[in-house]
Design brief:
This protein is α/β, with parallel strands linked by helices. 48% of the residues lie in helices and 18% in strands. Helix 1 (15-26) links the parallel strand 1 (5-11) and strand 2 (33-39).
């Protein structure tokens, strides 16, 4: 029997990119699909496009709802999903034509609960790279190994570029109303999985554009990432204490990621607030052999105070400009 795969596509005001996204899904060489498109109150004509596709392909069902944000849309799609497996594809991204079939092959071969595919970021106007299948590297993780990989940030924490057993995702809804929604629940999903398989083949194409969340200027909403990390820490402490050092590192790491954004808007009060979190977890970033030197240097500068951190951030920018100049001439 061929397993049904549910694909959930949350849609909100992405008309220029929606055709490419949906076309890449309906052209999958794995055809036993349930395609759930959730129109999250779009005002730019996306709703009509979704209905147009549904009228032509009976695998597609469209949910129209008032705007509630990305998590709300994903949850609405997950709630009605009937497939054994589920995948999430953002409506401004697209995938290779064998994206699902390759993951099904890995799921069956390794009896995996979660399959993680490679991805690449493509700026607007760019093209997807040709896939070199001879270069594929497959890694198999136990639950503990997968959780450790998440905590050290090895590209597993987002819901995109993955396929899950649907029963896992249904247990843990995406947190509504917060940025970095994946970080608020994905560790629990991985905590319930027995086997995780990862392929390095870049089959998910993440579109980089100026309006996306990742490119937003810092404001107080971004501080939720620290709350997510702290909840991860508490979860690990209660359930997997052998990974507590990794969880502590994660709390410190998110501070080093936020700090340059905070410094760029000269928000000293917020800097001092997040610095306190780093102080609590400093030894697990400074004296951790799994952490890169660049990250340790930034953490040390933050610990030294506001002015040293500003200097370190400016130095990083200068080095990056020099590297880019040498690379592109």
């Amino acid at each position: 029997m061929i397993d049904l795969v549910s694909i959930v596509v949350p849609v909100y005001n992405v008309k220029p990119y929606l055709y490419q996204c949906i076309n890449s899904i309906i052209k999958q060489d794995y055809t036993n699909l349930e395609i759930i498109i959730v129109d999250d109150g779009s005002t730019d004509g996306c709703a009509a496009i979704c209905d147009e596709y549904a009228a032509k392909d009976d695998r597609i069902q469209v949910v129209h709802k008032t705007n509630g944000g990305l998590s709300s849309a994903r949850n609405a799609g997950t709630k009605i999903a009937k497939g054994k497996y589920i995948a999430f594809i953002d409506s401004d991204d697209w995938v290779s034509e064998d994206y699902i079939s390759h993951q099904i092959r890995l799921a069956n071969q390794y009896k995996a609960d979660i399959i993680v595919m490679g991805h690449c970021s493509i700026w607007e106007g760019g093209e997807a790279p040709k896939i070199d299948y001879s270069n594929e590297k497959i890694s198999e993780y136990s639950k503990i190994e997968a959780l450790e990989a998440i905590l050290y940030g090895f590209k597993m924490q987002v819901s995109a570029c993955k396929m899950f057993k649907t029963e896992l995702i249904k247990r843990y809804p995406f947190p509504v109303g917060a940025l970095y929604e994946d970080l608020g629940m994905m560790y629990k999903v991985f905590g319930d999985a027995e086997i995780v398989v990862q392929s390095n083949l870049p089959m998910y194409y993440y579109r980089r554009r100026n309006g996306s969340i990742i490119n937003e200027k810092f404001d107080s909403r971004h501080l939720v990432i620290i709350d997510h990390a702290q909840k991860q820490y508490d979860y690990i402490k209660d359930n997997y204490p052998q990974l507590l050092k990794a969880a502590s590192y994660r709390c410190a790491y998110v501070v080093t990621e936020l700090s340059p954004k905070v410094l760029n808007v000269n928000d000293k009060a917020t800097f001092m607030k997040i610095r306190k979190v780093l102080i609590q977890h400093k030894k697990d970033i400074l004296f951790n052999h799994k952490v890169q030197s660049k990250c340790k240097i930034r953490a040390f500068a933050i610990l030294c105070g506001y002015t040293p951190a500003k200097i370190e951030t400016k130095t990083e920018k200068i080095i990056k400009r020099i590297e880019n100049k040498n690379t592109f001439g």
